[in-house]
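User: I'm preparing a small set of examples for a lab meeting where we compare how different chains pack in three dimensions. I only have the primary sequence for this one, and I'd like the structure in token form so I can line it up with the others. Please keep the answer compact; I'll paste it straight into my notes.
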Amino acid sequence: MPAPARSIAIVAVVLLLVAASGCRKAPEETPVLEEPGRAVIYPDGAQAEADISAALGKAAKEKKRVLLDFGGNWCGDCQVLEIYFHDPANRNLLESNYVLVPVNIGRYDENLAIAARYGVPVTKGVPALAVLDPTGQVVYSQRNGEFESMRNMDSASVTAFLLQWKG
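Assistant: Understood. Below is the structure token output for the 167-residue chain.
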């Protein structure tokens, strides 16, 4: 099999495995590709506290809420959520009402204390969201893996969520 065809076949198998298993467990190490559905969404986990602090300051100035998005770049459902966040129906709603902070949980080995602080049990699946007011108080946190199967949901579910918690 030629190298390009083999690469395509490998990516297809990985995507099928992710789709079949959801994002409850981190998959084996796979390369992160910059292509649709394989974006680097979550920055280095070490910057999460600083990102949240900066977002709270920005939210206070702009009178917005902070939306914490816990997940990993390996997670297919997290990739779908990212696509839904930026589709035309949601982009303006998100940018007008929230300061979005992607929080990298690594392979369920990073920023778990942050998730716990905001009442988000990431072990029930990611992506998992928490909404904070500008003072850092939790307005809402997903406690039951509500978006864990994002690949089976549509953009309207994200729209409903953003409308419900915009404040």
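A couple of notes for your slides: The beta strands are 65-71, 98-104, 128-132, 138-141. Confidence is low (pLDDT under 50) at residues 3-7, 9-21.

User: Perfect, thanks.
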